[in-house]
Amino acid sequence: MFFSLDPQERRLFQMIGNCAARLGVPAYVIGGYVRDRLLGRPTKDIDVVCVGDGIRLAQEVAGSLAPKPKVVVYSRFGTAMLHFEGIEIEFVGARRESYSPDSRKPEVELGTLEDDQNRRDFTINALAISLQENTFGQIIDPFNGLAHLEQKIIKTPLDPGQTFSDDPLRMLRAIRFANQLGFTIEPNTYKGLKQYKSRLHIISKERITAEVEKILQTPKPSIGFNLLFDTGLLHLFLPEVTALQGVEDRAGKAHKDNFYHTLEVLDNLCKKSDNVWLRWAALLHDIGKPPTKKFDEASGWTFHGHEWKGAAMVPTLFRNMRLPLDSKLDYVKKMVMMHLRPISLTKEEVTDSAVRRLIFDAGEDLEDLMLLCESDITTKNVKKMARYLEGYEYLKERIALVNESDRLRLWQPPITGEVIMRTFGIGPSKEVGIIKTAVREAILDGIINNDYEPAFQKMIQEGEKLGLKPVL
Ligand code: ATP
Predict the structure, then answer these.
(1) Are residue 111 and residue 162 in the same domain, yes or no?
(2) 449 domain residue, yes or no
């Protein structure tokens, strides 16, 4: 099968193909670019593999472009990269990799295209397009990747045992791709995830976290987290989250399964916000529940103080996951700690000062906190849902009202009572209040600018309406 290239792509690929021909090295576009183009997804980087020296090919290509782009060489990896018309193109020599059981770092030797395709993680990521003149545009698909794209299947090119033990990060990548692309993991590959999960221990936390964040950034991360849970992978790096799973029933009183509740909250939030830190907060908002869980004969299961406990657990979790220990950590901690505050204000007879305290404590993150709290409503009872949402709308109105009255109280118009009394030669009186209010309202309504001169003129006009004349 031939790849249908658009004209710009054809020109670029032909040029790379010509450079490769000059050097006598067969070259191919391979991996994610081919997959995403065939799926009609937006593409970014192009990976070019050649049977020979990838760095040399990058230099040859750069020399054929005007203006000549800078070639960034990563000699340790034998790769080189350049930017052309906003596209990042990476060049690498085809390689064969062999792994030893304890290390992530493979022994690398030069290899054929076939060797290079064998070391790819999934059949859909092993597709290559030929840039050679006689086969230009032909898709080289040794593992049925095209059919798997069609069938929406994630499958390892080799035996899953080999692919996953060679680089166990591929297990997380399988789940991430399934989630991102809406694909199913082929049964034997899925079995491999369960069987080889413990190999994950040789992978650095940074790489694990990068995959988790990609799952968090999908529109429906519960798909990925459910797969992570069912395969047992999640238990290996986020035990605080897996501890949420389970229902305990005592004397006919059961609590909800907080793991599935958390995933619902997360999906709800993802419909409202792309902020990945708020998504982390949704994932972690209830992690204080397992350690605070108690059974009370009268009231059943309680999780008193779980928001405080959860917030206190966040820094260790961030450290373990190599997440940033800066304002992002403070933000997630704050969200976890405050996640019950708004709901309590929808229930009670709310006082202005309680609302004001919420506004003050949440500060600039109030809107995010409200999104998290709204997402936390997962009741299946339609009537209850309507009541809770109504409570939120009411709270939002109260917040707006308190904000407005505070703004008015704190805000000082440019004309003070002092100026009015001096200008008209009058003492404290009803007129001073009337003029002051009229000037303030004119500014708030946008009739005049919030500056001294127009406010002064407005004051004179208003004074005249009351029969006052300036004495100065
Ligand atoms: P994304 O850009 O969404 O992270 P991708 O697959 O498009 O995913 P890369 O992660 O840059 O992009 O990988 C490019 C290609 O390199 C992949 O399509 C795959 O062929 C190969 N690859 C990347 N990581 C691995 C891995 N851990 N094991 C095997 N092959 C890999």
Answers:
(1) no
(2) yes
Q: Locate 215 and state its tokens.
A: 């799952």
Cβ(125) – ligand 1 distance below 6 Å:
yes
Range of the domain at 174: 154-237
Helical spans, DSSP H, in 411-451: 417-424, 430-444
Residue 55 and residue 105 in one domain: yes
Ligand 1 geometric centre to CA of 94 (Å): 15
CA angle 135, 136, 141 (to 5 degrees): 70
Rounded Cα–Cα distance for residues 88 and 125 (Å): 18
Which atom of ligand 1 approaches the CA of 36 most closely?
Answer: 7
pLDDT tens digit sequence for 40-88: 999 879 999 999 999 999 999 999 998 899 999 998 888 999 999 889 9
Whether 326 maps to a domain, the answer reads: no
pLDDT tens by residue, 238-258? 999 999 999 888 878 888 899
Give me the number of domains the chain comprises: 3
For the record, the structure tokens of 126 come out as 């092993």
**The whole model's pTM is what?**
0.85
Q: What atom in ligand 1 is closest to the CA of residue 173? A: 27
Q: Is the CB of 170 under 6 A from ligand 1?
A: yes
- Shared-domain flag, residues 192 and 219: yes
167 lines ligand 1 (CB under 6 A): yes
Which residues in 326-366 belong to E strands, given as ranges? none
Last-in-domain residue among 214, 237, 260: 237
How many Å lie between the centroid of ligand 1 and the Cα of residue 84? 21
**51 lies in the same domain as 99:** yes
Point out the domain boundary residue: 91, 121, 151: 151
| Count of helices and strands (H, E) across the chain | 24, 15
Closest CA to 190 of 155, 218, 158: 155
Residue 471 falls within a domain, yes or no? no
